[in-house]
Amino acid sequence: MHLIQVDSVQRWMEDLKLMTDCECMCILQSKPISTEKDEQNELILSSQYSTCDNLQILLKRAWIISTELTRIAQKLEKNRWQRVHSMTVRVNCHVHSMINEYNTFTRSSSEEMHQLEKLLIDKCSEFTAFTERCLQTEDEEILKTMKSCVNETLTTVAQYFGQLIELVLTQEAQSLLRQMELSGSLYVMDSAISGLFSLAQEGAHLCRIIAKEGGVVALFKICRQDCFRCLYPQTLRTLASICCVEEGMHQLEKVDGILCLADILTDTSHSEVTHAEAAAVIAQITSPHLTFTQHLSSFLENMEEIVTALVKLCQEASSGEVFLLASAALANITFFDTMACEILLQLNAMKMLLAACSDKCIVDTPYSRDQVVTILANMSVLDQCASQIIKGNGVQLLMEMLFEKSSSGNPAEVAACERVQQKSAVTLARLSRDPEVADAAVKLSCIPRLIKLCRSPTERNNSDSVLVACLAALRRLAVMSPDGLEDSDFQQLVKPRLVDSFLLCTNMEESFV
């Protein structure tokens, strides 16, 4: 389950209210506050939070139960029966609280749900009684026999609990999708899409449930109706989240989702925000990290118009965020099919990308530069690319990227900086087969910078991938300009086999004993 990472003390304070006085909470929640009809009280309870808030409370409670079950298994392994029993009592209370909380804000539980709730509650009671008996037994042989039964009961509790949570989440997804299908109201539709988006943020498992229940189909149906144009950005954002899983991708292919995205991107009447969100979906479904993009056959049919629209979006981007989404989509497409690089060359995209990098308001983060240098690296396999790099002062840009450093120290930003350094070295290595590019790189002092990156682990943040790329670029430039290296650099970084130079450079790191 996806949980927002926060300060540990803050997390403890939030969890504390769910973990204290569980017995009292169970008793109170099982009884009405007044002797009169309880509809008004229920209404007050349910109106305090939205469906998304209620679901967050449920998921947090479920996370606590899941954690407790894991801890019980650990304590059971160590035969700490007192701890096992007290934790079992706590889990029992949490399960009662979770079921009561869910039934408070849900009016339409199914028969299957009630059966699962009863099974789980009965099994939890049995589990608590079992561990209590174990406390009263001192005979080691009897305890050993009982331990296997306790383990079996724990497994059953975990199984029923998992099934109940799965059913709850499935019913929530079904409810939201039913709202989208039956309502023509913009307000209701907007609320339902927001609910789906919140569900999708909870992780891949939730995305699979939504896709399985027809979420992708329903969202693309909205994107094909002009009356819901104002909801397109939010709808596309939700689609981008769901399509991180294979089930979502299969559904997208079935409903001709690529064609719909192409239509949105090429329709100039749509807002920049809508175009940017469509680009985000393209970036998601073409991600090189996904292993299930091969079935996107329809993408090739629409590639030229999609690439053209994305280049235009990059060129006219009014903010760094829009440029990042459009360039990320382009970068992923260049991995997806080599034909994309040829289309980009014909569209003179190289010039546009190099120009954008000089605008610090547009290319304003290492993440954006990572996308640009990815496109340059993939395009650099084409022979015609070298002349465009020279014309656009691209070698100077690649040299600057070799100095990429994180200003915040944030791990994600540091990783992005490493990728920028690595890919700029790779691009230099590929382009330096052209004597004109190699000459420009030498004149801009690329060789000393590459040597420093090889010899100083801190300069490359101890990244092996940056080291390998820099060694390859250095060797290519040394062939074109052997006079640019001192003899020691040549003997250690160029002359040996690449693997020997790599080992030499990695052993330069300081060792603390």
Automatic annotation (TrEMBL):
CDD domains in the record: INSC_LBD
Domain named Protein inscuteable homologue LGN-binding: residues: 4-48
GO biological process, one term: regulation of asymmetric cell division
InterPro entries: ARM-like (IPR011989), ARM-type_fold (IPR016024), Armadillo (IPR000225), Insc_C (IPR045789), INSC_LBD (IPR031938), INSC_LBD_sf (IPR038205), Inscuteable (IPR039921)
Domain Protein inscuteable homologue C-terminal: 61-513
GO MF, one example: cytoskeletal anchor activity
GO cellular component: apical cortex
Pfam families for the chain: Insc_C, INSC_LBD
Coiled coil: none
Matching SMART domains: ARM (SM00185)
Protein name in UniProt: INSC protein
Taxonomic source organism: Elachura formosa (spotted wren-babbler)
Organism placement in taxonomy: Eukaryota, Metazoa, Chordata, Craniata, Vertebrata
Gene from which this protein is expressed: Insc
